[in-house]
Amino acid sequence: MAGKITDIYVNITTTHPVAAIGLGVPGIFVAGDALNDQHYTSLEALTADYDNGTDVYKAAKAYFDQPNAGKSIEVITYTASKTDDTTKVTTGGISEAATAYYWGAWHFAVLATYNAADALELSNYIETQNEKFFVIQQAKLEDLSQFAKNTRTITFYHLAADERLDMAVLGRVGNADVGSVTWKSKGDLVGITDDKLTYLQYSAAETAHAITYIVKGSKAVTSNGWTASGAWIDQLHGIDWVKENIELQLQDLLNQEDKVAFDDTGFAQLEQVVEQVLSNAYAQGIVAYDATSKGGAYTVTFDKLADVPAEDIANREYNGIHWSYTPSDAVHGMTVYGTINYAA
User: Where are the domains of the chain?
Assistant: First the structure.
């Protein structure tokens, strides 16, 4: 995991075989001469550094054009990788920039200009972090095959190479409250034309877990809401929200309290913070409903002082909070059964 200045570390183990805060900000990665991280709150502000002929501008415009877009984007400049002939040490590269600015506001990484090697490097880097997303769009389905196993990469198959479907979808749904939306069947994308795919093309895209923009019924919508490996975007986004909010709220507690006692009373304070985050996650639609408890399908427990190892006590480090939850699901399709009753 990229280095972070914090006292709180949330370790998540998922029992799914695959495998904050806003969490909707796109980070546009662009090649340049020096590492840099810039934040922009409007398209007008962006034009001071990137005019309307640049790929950065075109990507940002597709995002800001959407009515539901967030209020900011991040532009991250990365340098070409170089290997010293003497030391054999490699510096630069897109993953170096991603590491340097990993804890910025961005949650969805995109490329300003497609480069196959850079795309795979960034996709694989984010996969190792098991947090955030890499989003890529291509006009040829075969160009997306290299990402097939990556759970944290979202692939878009769009025939109009001059349109940024990836950024438009991020503007349409990425900034919505996490847990309140699924990424499938999202339409009304400003500046994006639907793809006239044959059934064979559509079927191939579905098999590849790529997302297209096609007419279903009477409206153009996103064809699905999954990542390249077939995992659901909204559930992964929910995991990120829970993790980051637990980290934030626990850190705030330590910062604000004069003292959190290293005893069962102090541990209960910490447990209550985690319970409140999961309660909020349930209210937001991240956590599933539990018919037995008539509430959120989550649990939180904490170890008592008597069970804490002596070494942890000496180091003032408490590792005894344990939590779990069942992710909420969404209807993505259905089969309706009917019966025709002929008169006798």
Answer: 25-230, 240-325
